[in-house]
Amino acid sequence: MALRERESRFITAYECAPIGVKLWDTDGVILHVNKATCEMSAYTETDLVGRNNIDFTHPDDIDSRDQSIKRLLSGEIDQYQVVNRHRHKLGHYIWVDIHITLIRDTRDLPLYLVEYAHDITERNRVEDALNYNQALYSQAEKLGKLGHWEWDKINKKMTSCSEQFAQFYEMTVDDALKFFSNPENDSNVVHPEDRDGYEQSIRDAE
């Protein structure tokens, strides 16, 4: 009875998991998938079960995947994590953060693999957009001969600055951060006639 109860709990957790869970044998043939896997890829359970994982893996990711599986089966590692591209039923690929664990039988022989998958396509899209915008901003600073910096008013030190800002003073970014975190240095680079106005603007910003 206890065994059946444990199996029932496992099946319920497996089916209701918010991330994709997939079981496949040591040859890569898919044995079972949960609901989240189907929702993530738009494939039905019938579409997936019995097919090989390679059929749904981006060609550029297959070699690294195969090498990791070999390490699992040889006992070199027990699990691994990787970001791969998986084919969606509509034909495009989605980015998936996957964790794969090898399950062994009572004789310690490879039995099957459990794959936990989380779709990170949107996260990657946002990160790419941020990186692109940052690159545009940096280029605009260079063309406009502008620079920027950030100041921690509580600890009274510079926390970041752009490369262009550091170049104004013929410094690296690290050297600029160290130099301008000293209040005396910060004031000394300002022309004496402009110092009162500069310091007042800092106080107003606080």
Q: Features of this protein?
A:
206 residues, alpha+beta, five-stranded antiparallel β-sheet, two-stranded antiparallel ribbon, 9 helices
Structure notes:
By secondary structure, the protein is α+β, with helices and mostly antiparallel strands. Helix content is 47%, strand content 24%. It is built from nine helices and seven strands; from the N terminus they run H-E-E-H-H-H-E-E-E-H-E-E-H-H-H-H. The protein has helices spanning 2-16, 35-41, 45-48, 62-74, 121-144, 163-168, 173-180, 183-188, 192-205, and strands at 20-24, 30-33, 79-87, 93-104, 110-119, 149-152, 157-161. Strands 2-1-5-4-3 form a five-stranded antiparallel β-sheet, with helices on both faces. Strands 6-7 form a two-stranded antiparallel ribbon. Strand 1 (20-24) and strand 2 (30-33) form a beta hairpin. The chain is elongated. The protein starts with a helix and ends with a helix. The mean pLDDT is 83.
